[in-house]
Amino acid sequence: MLKNPRISIIIPIYNEEENIVLLCSELKEILIFLLTKKEIKSYEIILINDGSTDNTQKVIEEVSNKNSFVKYIQLRRNFGQTAALKAGFEHCTGDLVVTMDGDLQNDPKDIPRLIKKINQGYDVVSGWRYDRKDAFFKKISSRIINNLRRIIIGDSLHDYGCSLKIYKKECIKDLELFGELHRYITAYLYFKGYKVGETLVNHRQRKFGKTKYGFKRGLNGILDLLYLKFWASYSSRPLHFFGRIGIYQWSLAILILIEQVIKANIIGSLELGPLLMLSAVLGISGLLFLVFGFLSEIVSRSYFQNTGRLYNIKKRSK
Questions:
Q1: Number of CB atoms found within 10 A of residue 214's CB
Q2: Given a cut of 50, is residue 317 above it in pLDDT?
Q3: Sheet with 96-99, side-by-side order of all strands
């Protein structure tokens, strides 16, 4: 349990000019409450303008000038939520780091609940929007991806898409964010051995602006999930993944060849048909998978030799 921790609130923002003032006002109210209760030592709000095309930056600067605890980072263009979060993580000073959306759908009043949960011994706690206030398509697609994620990842979280999360500072120092992996930060930390928890949070209707979610983002989420599973399971031994596929293909090619030889002995001739062609293709593709596995193994070993991130230490004696 952290006593009187410093807390950082990181909020990626893209075209949310109408929400910023109200969001910062709500956050200020709850953070002052936590400060007076001595549950936190200090606080900061970091707004990351991810290449907004409206008046977002102007509003952010006005709020920052009026409130010394509000800081901002303006990105040169829209790099995406993962890059925006990474920028916030690299510039925050808190012992506890809260992330949330800038659309007012996450409720700042849930922050004390997140702090209480993480003080129960968790390294990261994710919000669970049990009663979501989103469009039907968005809720259904999110449920499908969450169910798929539980099958692939093997954890018990219900709502990976919720941006309202809290992390201990040591977690974000251990993150290697790239692509669009912001959706699966908790899964990434889970694979690294951190203790991940979940708590129910309020979810509100969007009042202003438009949702940034679409069909394309849903597909990207599935691809990112598959990549994360591969990275977690085979990043240090890619030959085992690609080599097995190659050996399976060779085995099937040999079985087909044996079947064709036996058949030829029965009918008295061996003809070049579809099955023999398939056997040849499987033999060649199996070889290619093995070669690709060896090359991936070389790249992987070079990476881990340079980074030294083959394992993760929780504690050690002094």
A1: 12
A2: no
A3: 70-74, 42-49, 6-13, 96-99, 165-168, 124-129, 196-201
Between β-strands 165-168 and 96-99, what pairing exists: parallel, antiparallel or unpaired? antiparallel
Query: Which letter does DSSP use for residue 207 in this model?
Result: -
Contacts 24+ apart (CB under 8 A), 298-305: 299/238, 300/235, 300/236, 300/237, 300/238, 304/236
Chain segment 191-236, per-residue pLDDT in tens: 888 999 999 999 888 887 676 665 566 677 777 778 778 877 787 7
Residue type, 91: H
Q: Using an 8 Å Cβ cutoff, are 92 and 3 in contact?
A: no
Encoded tokens for 120: 């129960």
Indicate the domain borders of the chain: 6-234, 238-307
Do residues 49 and 74 make contact, with C-beta atoms less than 8 angstroms apart?
yes
**Length in residues, the chain:** 318
With 0-12 / 13-18 / 19 or more C-beta atoms within 10 angstroms meaning exposed / middle / buried, residue 139 is middle
* CATH code that applies to domain 6-234: 3.90.550.10
Cα 234 to Cα 49, 93, 219, 293, 300: the distances in Å are 35, 34, 22, 11, 9
